[in-house]
């Protein structure tokens, strides 16, 4: 199980199925509006 975390506010955005446990960084919709 992987996790996507917002690189700005550190909020968990989403989870995805993966063989490895990994953390990806993205931007959540709230932080994307800046």
TrEMBL record:
InterPro entries: SR1P. It comes from the Bacteria. This is SR1 protein.
């Amino acid at each position: 199980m992987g996790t996507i975390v917002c690189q700005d506010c550190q909020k968990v955005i989403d989870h995805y199925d993966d063989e490895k446990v990994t953390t990806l960084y993205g931007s959540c919709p709230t932080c994307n509006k800046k």
